[in-house]
């Protein structure tokens, strides 16, 4: 973690003292769609930024949303943040961060505009795929190593979008209302960890309003919480076009105003700001502080040093990282009769059906898009994996041009009837998982339910693979399907990883970072809260987001948070819970996990805490620890997880502070939020 030492602080002060007011102001707003201005005479370069969470985006003209159109801005297409979260592997988060950080530097960027960590409040948010989870603890655990990884490569992470940006409908102006407990327990912790533990050098303020103030002009959010509360000394970058008022943005915490238009001098923090300083409405020291932070960032990134990390992109090592994460992100949702893994030797003909089997997703989604060097679709991956002894035959089955679907279904049925095995690849695409628009329902589009139903009639053993960045509804056919594999958008190697999982080259080990409800109306944002609101949206469900709601209110989801099967079996035993009372209370949780099956595999052991008696309303249980462990067949490992006072605490909104109450708590240990194998009560 790089800190600015006294000598550097002094140097920064001297640099600022040499700058004119105009030069300072030129550093705090966009002078290109993805860069600020530099000050050549002082040797200060522009600060260069790039989207986004799945890799380094293609290059644009400085002042137009037109591709430069070169051939050297291809880059590694990594799995989405949601896929990473489904791996629950914090080492992989660090490796992902290092790889994307290196690619950003390789493409001469200073700031990568990711990771995205807004809470998945509703299955419908168009940008869910760019975010990680419904659970703030899981987000915190994944985001910290990710940021640290990025920043080892002299690239700044830009964790986004701060805060409460949980829908795309009216994203530029919707006003979010929620109570203090929801804010502090659900919507802020990921950002707090990103700042306090991850030391994210930059943070992106959101478009929307919170409690009546634009997040990018909110004294409460940017000054009280972020700077004073969390001691943040990094740079706040506005989302592109999120600023609406010169004075508020200047005083309430924006360091760099970015926008989507090319009238750079007219940005709120450009000429209008200069004018306000000149006529005394805003003190020059407000600008000095921003420049100080920006220069601090530049020193942290070694921008003035010849030793600055050079970076590299499109390397085979980065593709390997993308593949390893894709493998660990696959979630085996259902596997009746152990139909998977398939045996390649017994398959002479394989029917692969569904547009998503042959669809590339890298170029979609808007700012998260990637100009990928290549992208293996499941069809390519399956064909590569199977080789010459199996004939892989493809039928589209459905199309985003829905008028074609009845014909396509007929053709697909014929194919399924005539092949030894059938794999149907369904799901969403970036017409649905998309920035700027939410879905209107949770159903599979393009007539896919009909397709799956018809295929299951002719082949009840058909393997169903769903690819989507958000929960979708499986109800019309789920009871008839024996096998369901899920992959979040998983990067350029994702299709190959799917093939490896289906044929057992890898043992699936991902778990859902988000609940898949049976139907939309079961989802708390929809049955208690509001969605999408009009001018305002009320988060009436409060802290009951995701499994916190489903478990507390006893609503059965289709697939619960933390769910994911394996080709082997894991046994849990020997739970010991030890309360150690020192200055701070610690609770040592220890248990054994044994691989009791015949194949090696990884298990994500999850530890939940339940507050049994409380004068405040608490969720039935909350995730407070997990460990991903690899076990050979027959092997047993001891897992130790230490809980601390934060694992017991809640936000006391009457006294505006985090606290816990003495009394009885329960530790629950298991394989998912609803497959709990061990429990023990302890008292504090
Ligand atoms: C998005 C950001 C993105 C920025 C720059 C905005 O519309 O909300 O996530 O980083 O554009 O492309």
TrEMBL record:
Gene Ontology MF term list: beta-glucosidase activity
Pfam family, one: Glyco_hydro_3_C
Name the UniProt record assigns to this protein: Glycosyl hydrolase
Gene3D superfamilies per the UniProt record, alphabetical: Glycoside hydrolase family 3 C-terminal domain (3.40.50.1700), Glycoside hydrolase, family 3, N-terminal domain (3.20.20.300), Immunoglobulins (2.60.40.10)
Homology family: Belongs to the glycosyl hydrolase 3 family.
Keyword Ion transport: no
Record keywords: Hydrolase
InterPro entries for this protein: Cellulose_deg_GH3, Fn3-like, GH, Glyco_hydro_3_C, Glyco_hydro_3_C_sf, Glyco_hydro_3_N, Glyco_hydro_3_N_sf, Ig-like_fold
GO biological process, alphabetically ordered: carbohydrate metabolic process
Positions of the Fibronectin type III-like domain: 603-673
